[in-house]
Amino acid sequence: MKNLIIRTLTGAGFVAGVTLCILLNKFTFGVLMIALMVVLMLEFYRMTMRGEYLFSQILSIAAAVVLFLLTWLYRGFNFPGRLVVLSIIPIFIVMINSLYVRDKTDFGKFANLYTAILYIAVPVAMTNFAVFSPSGAYSGRLLLCFFIIVWASDIGAYVFGMALGQRFGGRLFPEVSPKKSWIGFWGGFVLAIAAGVVLHYTGLLAYPVWHCAVLAALMNIFGVYGDLIESQWKRYYAVKDSGSIMPGHGGFLDRMDSALLAIPVGIMYLLVVNVI
Description:
- By secondary structure, the chain is mainly α.
- The protein folds into 2 domains: 26-137, no CATH class; 139-276, no CATH class.
- 71% of the residues lie in helices and 3% in strands.
- It has 10 helices and 2 strands; from the N terminus they run αααααααββααα.
- A two-stranded antiparallel ribbon has the order 1-2.
- A hairpin with a 3-residue loop joins strand 1 and strand 2.
- The N and C termini lie far apart (43 Å).
């Protein structure tokens, strides 16, 4: 019970902070996303590289920040889109820097530098497509709806999984995450779709209701995969949590793992059906 209270309070604080920054303006959104991205990458590197090649870690985080800033400027300030390709330059610097690393005992870990850019930086940079219209006008409403769907999915999976999953039904992916159950999955699936439908009827998601339901279903499925992918990383490196910054949850990566796949998929779906 104590852990549940701590988890609830911490989660509520996180939700309130994210909501405020997203809805306020494009500058608070930018600061929030960069801060989240940096912390997520630090947690990932702490888990996978354990303090090795620190300078290269800093270079890769700098590359991620440049990627986000160029995308932010392109979407929100009419920055020439062709110049976004400049974001590849810091990544080339990371690659070139690898040649000058003297101790190559664990050189295989260098792959984690590029993994974090693809796994964390690219999805975070894509959020710019959710908050800026083609004309550059800012609105955090769609991105907040994405987060609400992800949060509803996580809550549904947690509540149904804890209440029924340990006693009934099979394991979802026992070799990666033994505690996750099919009942938890379906609980999250139903609650995510319900959230999408409610967001439609409240006017927050201004798309046909069937689009909202499909969007929520896709985000739920890929959010579950995002959770499992992070669980696989933690299992391989024998860590329980990615960090301890959020009592009751672990690290920010533990809290954001679903969103890293779910939100890009939501953005891609709406782009493909040509509604954003």
